[in-house]
Amino acid sequence: MAEAHDREGGTQSFTLRLRRYDPESGNAPYWDEHKIELEPHRSVLEAVLQAKDRFDGSIGIRCSCRQAICGSCGVRVNGEPALACHTHLDAAKAGARDGVIEIEPMGNMPVIKDLIVDMDAVHWKKIQRVTPWLLAKQPVPEREYIVPKDAMVDVTQTMACIQCGACVSDCLAMEVDPGFIGPAALAKAYRFVGDPRDAEQYERLNDLAQDPQGIFDCTHCFKCVEACPKGVNPMGQIMRLRRIATGDHHIVDQNNGKRHEDALTTLVRDYGLNHEAELVPRSYGGNSWFGKFHPAAGKEMLASLPTAIKGLLRGKMTPAKILFGHKIPAQDLKAVQAIYDKVESRPERYELNLYIAGEDE
Ligand code: FES
To answer: What spacing in Å lies between the alpha carbon of 12 and ligand 1's midpoint?
Structure first.
């Protein structure tokens, strides 16, 4: 029968498909379905709590404030990270593949039980990694530090983080390299790097740049930006850390992050698009056509040979593109170069965040 609709009370019936898993049981994870009755504007969290209350008290979910403040109820709804208490049932149903709302634990963290993940094992350990407190400039003023308003507005965006772990759950770089410090912790690092009262901006940045799993491990996939329920824009904060590290402090890291960025920037300016075959040699051998003759580049080029061959076989690369790069129409190339000219002629770098620009980057 079509879903019951209680017009009097305004409730509807919704089907939840919950991912259940108890590592201590020795049994494999499985899906569990429950039908619940609630008004469509009520939250996924309320629906799970109703299923727990009426059908199975052993369902595990973590929550506290129920109003998108404490960050406890992070889960995946229909495969996307979300706060269960901040996701309406009607919206969740509209996004469901077959009308059944699927709720799973967050990714990149071990499951403790059902929808509860071990935040200590991953998220909080990474937050601790970045020294998440102010190392105050000395001498500490007798009354208070006077801080420019713009500087505080800038760090306010990272202060909006409620530590729900949604960005960690969806971080693709962390999926490949679980040691990556990750979006939440690096956004936290920006909180102090961007604070004019902090005494160790250079030390923090140098540490995060030299760490092979630090700021240059981010692959710009934007997943954390989409996942964040508070508009913190963790990837944007990581890019700010990079810009201050390389642009202001001229930190050259052992991971070739700065050289790689320089090479990419130059190639896009010269060709209008990335020239893949030049990127690796320039990143390792020096940012010019001669980079490929540097011994350090040779080793990396050999290591990347299997990827290049795969690209050729799959038609993603052609011998002509490897040799000469991409060609875009002359007027397009001119337009790209005009952007470079405009940005590079500015006397100082603009750092606009959500609160200053009025919209997400
Ligand atoms: Fe606090 Fe959802 S219960 S954020």
So the answer is: 23
The answer to whether 235 and 227 have CB atoms below 8 angstroms apart is: no
Conformational region of residue 92, where left means phi above 0, alpha means psi within -120 to 50, and beta covers everything else: alpha
82-113 per-position pLDDT tens digit:
999 999 999 999 999 899 999 999 999 999 99
Atom of ligand 1 nearest to the CA of 70: 1
Q: Which atom of ligand 1 is nearest to the CA of 66?
A: 3
**Separation CA 226–CA 233 (nearest Å):** 8
Whether residue 142 has pLDDT greater than 80: yes
Beta partners for 17? 33, 102
**What is the pTM for the complete model shown?**
0.88
Domains (ranges, CATH) in the chain? 5-117 (3.10.20.30), 120-253 (1.10.1060.10), 257-327 (no CATH)
pLDDT at residue 131 tops 70: yes
**Inter-axis angle of helices 183-193 and 149-159, nearest 10:** 160
Ligand 1 neighbourhood includes 163 CB (under 6 angstroms): no
Query: Which atom of ligand 1 lies closest to the CA of 162?
Result: 4
CA angle 214, 217, 219 (to 5 degrees): 145
| Pairing of the two strands 30-38 and 80-83 | unpaired
With beta carbons less than 8 A apart as the criterion, state whether 56 and 114 touch.
Answer: no
- Ligand 1 in contact with 158 (CB < 6 A)? no
Average pLDDT, the chain: 92
**Mutational pocket test of ligand 1: of 43, 46, 63, 88, the residue with most ligand atoms within 8 Å of the beta carbon:** 63
How many Å lie between the centroid of ligand 1 and the Cα of residue 70? 5
Q: Judge if the upstream peptide bond of residue 139 is cis by omega within 30 degrees of 0.
A: yes
User: At residue 206, what is the residue type?
Assistant: N
CA distances to 24, 85, 162, 280, 314 from 318, rounded to whole Å, are: 52, 50, 47, 17, 10
Residue type, 14: F
Query: Mean pLDDT, to the nearest integer, of 256-284?
Result: 92
Phi and psi at 11, nearest 5°, equal: -90, 155
Q: How far is the CA of 207 from the centre of ligand 1 (A)?
A: 33
